[in-house]
């Protein structure tokens, strides 16, 4: 198996919903939502990729780092890599239907698990698709479930309970989905959550709680004050609000506000292991990958997802040697070139 073959097979199944570009940067699919693109002009999606691309690294080779350790412990689970699969849903609406929902989500979660990583599932407006995600977690024996910020708190909590029963090691909400019209059209209105509502959700579960979709320091602090165990810095892949900054741009300010010990993950524009290294150097404890893993799934199911995660991890490993980092904890801002 190789990346070229995976991409060729994926291109056949995408029905032009994704062009499988040489660089997945949002230019070819701008405005294609539903679809794989970014909302409006696509600038939020494109800026995620650009912001990472603009970061330069210090090459360091006078040291004794021969075999760096890429492993992390997250939510009490030992992972071989800090590179995980982002929550992804709706194979038919967004990806052209070349795979069924269960084929897509099970490939994502199983592929991540087989690579020693962790797959996350999402929560679309169609209940059966969430059920598919739960079944994928059961098969992989672990995962993280992220629920839409429904106005009805009880609906969220019921989904938490189902996810934990299925084997989710952590749950949370993707609060950046607060303006999704598709949810409202399906009779499942979503909206923002204040501190008290987040705290209610945190207190409803006994597993780690994650708030995904944070892009400002003040809201990051607010989430941790409400009891969240982790946050994910994310603009929903550029799919909800046009003209946001890139994740790599806001991450350092968020880390400064919440402290280096806080569990802050980053999701936005990761296209290589070097991109993962950059986000970790900016303060993230781990990263989530979205669109490239969809290509992996469409190209070779779980084996394709496993291939991408392992490829990125190998790139991270090599980059750690060339920047003098013995472990993930050793990766910090000293490897970033300051102009």
What is the distance, rounded to the nearest whole angstrom, between the alpha carbons of the first and last residues? 40 Å
Classify the oligomer: single chain
Count of separate DSSP helical elements? 12
Number of domains: 1
Percentage of helical residues? 40-55%
The CATH superfamily appears as: Aldolase class I
Q: Strand share of the residues? A: 5-15%
CATH fold topology:
TIM Barrel
User: Which parts are unreliable, with pLDDT below 50 for 5 consecutive residues or more?
Assistant: none
Q: What is the highest CATH level, the class?
A: Alpha Beta
What does this structure look like?
This protein is α/β, with parallel strands linked by helices and 339 residues long. Helix 6 links the parallel strand 5 and strand 6. It is globular, with a radius of gyration of 18 Å. The mean pLDDT is 97.
Q: In short, what is this structure?
A:
With 339 residues, the chain is of the alpha/beta class. 43% of the residues lie in helices and 13% in strands. The chain contains twelve helices and ten strands.
Topology overview:
Elements: H1 3-13, H2 43-53, E1 72-74, E2 77-79, E3 83-85, H3 91-95, H4 101-114, E4 120-121, H5 127-140, E5 143-147, H6 153-166, E6 168-174, H7 181-185, H8 195-203, E7 209-214, H9 217-225, E8 230-234, H10 247-258, E9 263-267, H11 273-281, E10 286-289, H12 291-323
Parallel strand pairs: 3-10, 4-5, 5-6, 6-7, 7-8, 8-9, 9-10
Antiparallel strand pairs: 1-2
Helix pairs in contact: 1-12, 4-5, 4-12, 9-10, 11-12
């Amino acid at each position: 198996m190789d990346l070229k073959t995976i991409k060729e097979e994926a291109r056949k199944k995408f029905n032009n919903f994704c062009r499988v570009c040489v660089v997945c940067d949002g230019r070819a699919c701008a405005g294609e939502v539903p679809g794989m693109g970014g909302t409006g002009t696509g600038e939020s999606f494109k800026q995620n990729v650009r912001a990472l691309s603009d970061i330069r690294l210090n090459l360091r080779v006078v040291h004794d780092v021969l075999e760096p350790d890429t492993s992390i412990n997250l939510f009490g689970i030992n992972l071989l890599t800090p590179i995980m699969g982002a929550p992804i849903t709706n194979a038919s609406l967004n990806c052209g239907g070349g795979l069924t929902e269960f084929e897509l989500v099970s490939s994502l979660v199983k592929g991540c698990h087989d690579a020693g990583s962790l797959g996350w599932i999402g929560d679309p407006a169609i209940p059966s698709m969430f059920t598919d995600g739960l079944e994928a977690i059961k098969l992989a024996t672990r995962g993280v479930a992220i629920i839409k910020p429904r106005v009805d708190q009880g609906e969220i909590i019921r989904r938490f309970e189902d996810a934990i029963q299925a084997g989710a090691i952590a749950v949370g909400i993707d609060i950046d989905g607060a303006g999704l019209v598709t949810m409202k059209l399906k009779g499942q209105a979503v909206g923002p959550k204040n501190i008290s509502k987040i705290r209610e959700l945190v207190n409803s579960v006994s597993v780690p709680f994650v708030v995904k979709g944070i892009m400002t320091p003040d809201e990051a602090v607010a989430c941790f004050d409400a009891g969240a165990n982790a946050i994910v810095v994310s603009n929903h892949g550029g799919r909800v609000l046009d003209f946001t900054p890139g994740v790599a741009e806001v991450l350092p300010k968020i880390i400064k506000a919440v402290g280096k010990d806080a569990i802050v993950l980053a999701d936005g524009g990761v296209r290589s292991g070097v991109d993962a290294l950059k986000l970790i150097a900016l303060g993230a404890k781990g990263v989530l990958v979205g669109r490239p893993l969809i290509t992996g799934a469409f190209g070779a199911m779980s084996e394709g997802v496993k291939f991408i995660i392992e490829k990125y991890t190998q790139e991270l490993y090599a980059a750690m040697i060339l920047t003098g980092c013995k472990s993930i904890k050793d990766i910090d801002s000293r490897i970033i070139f300051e102009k």
